[in-house]
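Postdoc handover notes: sequence design on the structure in folder B. Input tokens:
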């Protein structure tokens, strides 16, 4: 790993990291990234694997494939929302290649951006790459490209932290602080930095959870709306709960106030509906993706309600 970090520092700004390559390679073909060097992490074995930590949590190497996560009985027993979310990413072939680190670092997406060079040139480019206007919010100066990874909302619900390494050393940050909320500079990662590991705390292991996802083709597509819900019970009531959403904003988000709304209550349809309203309120889908923004926002409401009911059932709350 030291060698990889060294090479990254040496060529910072001119190099792109390749993990599974399932997003990077198509993006390079479309000339969205044109690095001089590609740093293939494939042989950095220390960044692969699922290990329990001395404090009872778990450490997942950034190069661990989504398929390995989906198939891990250890993770399924303790962090089922993550295994469920991982199992919905793309297709089996892509999950065999795609990694958790790549899923966290995934570039934001937009119908005006994920196109060939010729296509983008024909439209006069846009703020995210090579241009200075936004086709989605004309007149604005902000890029609204949407974060479309499936595992980050689950990881946010589990209070995940990530380890970031560079020549200057190692730092550990809450995943919740990693995303900027901007469509173009969407993550807080310097060009000489590498995400090396994901940590899940022991305290998140007694939550039960589910992930619900909207996509056009169930066999392969990116999410157009995604909801993760985790819940912990005590004496037939919700002791704590969290809701994470994806694919409707430039960053995956935790729904603020969800825990306070659900804690101490028995789950019923009315409570689940109120949680759905809360999640829909912070969803700001635009015309960056297939399906209308109105429909995607409505599906966040519906999926949140269903996911809260399902999580309550798994946690034996209703
Ligand atoms: C047809 C198709 C369908 C897809 N559907 C979905 C879907 O449903 N849900 C979904 O979430 N994703 C989807 N994807 C995207 C992708 O397959 C996954 O997000 C996958 O997890 C990306 O991981 P990777 O290892 O292949 O990343 P890569 O392609 O190798 O990298 C992705 C980005 O992250 C950076 N990166 C990777 N690892 C690190 C690291 N350790 N440190 C710093 N930067 C890093 C790369 O430089 C690059 O910018 C789809 C892709 C395709 C082609
Ligand atoms: S939201 Fe606007 S600036 Fe961002 S990628 Fe789409 S068209 Fe470009």
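Designed sequence:
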């Amino acid at each position: 790993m030291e060698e990889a970090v060294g090479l990254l520092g040496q060529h910072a700004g001119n190099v792109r990291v390749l993990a599974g390559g399932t997003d990077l390679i198509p993006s390079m073909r479309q000339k969205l990234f044109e690095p001089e060097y590609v740093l293939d992490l494939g042989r950095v074995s220390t960044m692969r694997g699922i290990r329990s930590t001395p404090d009872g949590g778990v450490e997942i190497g950034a190069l661990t494939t989504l398929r390995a996560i989906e198939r891990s009985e250890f993770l399924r027993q303790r962090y089922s929302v993550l295994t469920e979310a991982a199992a919905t990413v793309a297709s089996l072939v892509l999950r065999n290649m795609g990694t958790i680190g790549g899923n966290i670092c995934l570039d934001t997406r937009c119908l005006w951006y994920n196109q060939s060079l010729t296509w983008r040139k024909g439209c006069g480019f846009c703020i995210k790459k090579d241009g200075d206007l936004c086709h989605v919010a004309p007149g604005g100066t902000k890029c609204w490209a949407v974060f479309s990874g499936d595992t980050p909302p689950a990881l946010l619900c589990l209070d995940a932290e990530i380890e970031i390494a560079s020549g200057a050393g190692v730092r550990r940050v809450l995943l919740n602080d990693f995303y900027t909320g901007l469509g173009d500079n969407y993550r807080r990662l310097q060009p000489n930095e590498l995400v090396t590991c994901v940590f899940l705390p022991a305290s998140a292991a007694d939550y039960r959870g589910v992930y619900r996802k909207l996509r056009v083709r169930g066999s392969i597509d990116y999410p157009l709306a995604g909801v993760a819900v985790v819940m912990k019970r005590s004496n037939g009531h919700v002791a704590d709960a969290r809701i994470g959403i994806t694919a409707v904003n430039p960053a995956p988000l935790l729904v603020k106030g969800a825990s306070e709304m659900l804690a101490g209550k028995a789950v019923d349809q009315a409570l689940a509906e109120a949680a759905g309203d809360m999640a829909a309120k912070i969803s700001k889908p635009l015309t960056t993706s297939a399906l209308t923004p109105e429909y995607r926002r409505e599906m966040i409401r519906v999926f949140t309600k269903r996911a809260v009911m399902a999580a309550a059932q798994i946690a034996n709350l209703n």
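Context for whoever picks this up: The first helix runs from residue 2 to 10. Don't rerun without checking with the PI first.
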